[in-house]
Design brief:
The structure is a single chain. The protein is of the alpha/beta class. The chain has a single domain, classed as P-loop containing nucleotide triphosphate hydrolases (Rossmann fold), CATH 3.40.50. It contains nine helices and five strands. It has a five-stranded parallel β-sheet, with helices on both faces. It is globular, with a radius of gyration of 17 Å.
Length: 189
């Protein structure tokens, strides 16, 4: 029994993946799908995936909400900066960052220098729907989620806009967003 031949699309993706020589780093607001799309993207590229928030929680031995509550956002951002620097240095294939990571000047500079920064953008209605499913978003506990997300989108857009690539996440299959990222990387390379 012979192995199935790869499809032309799979061969195209493999050719693009072979040209990617640094980590693909996903940035954008909470709820855009960085973790879910990142897992799909890594699988399509044949690379490993790491979620920076998971790595931070593991290093701190606390959940992200616990870190925020116990130590505040400034302490969290300091740990986030160090963990992302470590992940970049380890050469992971795809790294999903927290929504505020790319706002930090040192983190942004490291990602832009050592990775391929991909801003996943999304409309506010979809973000509200996605982020209110679970109560684990510390920044959304301080008020009305739509207002907070709208404000964060406005404040963070100039920072996210510095990413090498911008892709829209629609309310469809995450594989579609992953494919759009691969196509955008191909064009960027």
């Amino acid at each position: 029994m012979s192995a199935a031949c790869p499809s032309p699309q799979d061969r195209d993706i493999a050719a693009i993946a072979a040209r990617i020589t640094r980590p693909v780093v996903l940035v954008g607001l909470m709820g855009v799908g960085k973790s879910t799309v990142g897992r799909k993207l890594a699988a399509m590229l044949g690379r490993d995936f790491v979620d920076a928030d998971d790595a931070i929680a593991e290093a701190a031995q606390r959940s992200i909400p616990e870190i925020f509550e116990a130590f505040g956002e400034a302490h969290f951002r300091d740990g986030e900066r160090r963990v992302i620097a470590r992940l970049l240095g380890e050469g992971h294939g795809v790294i999903a960052t927290g929504g505020g990571a790319f706002i930090d000047p040192q983190t942004r500079a490291a990602v832009l220098e050592q990775g391929i920064a991909v801003w996943i953008d999304c409309d506010i209605d979809t973000l509200v729907e996605r982020t209110t499913r679970r109560g684990n978003r510390p920044l959304l506990k301080t008020g009305e989620p739509r207002e907070i997300l709208t404000r964060l989108a406005r404040e963070r857009a100039p920072f996210y806009g510095q990413a090498h690539i911008r892709v829209r996440s629609e309310n469809g299959p995450h594989a579609d967003t992953a494919r759009a990222i691969i196509e955008a990387i191909d064009q960027w390379l």
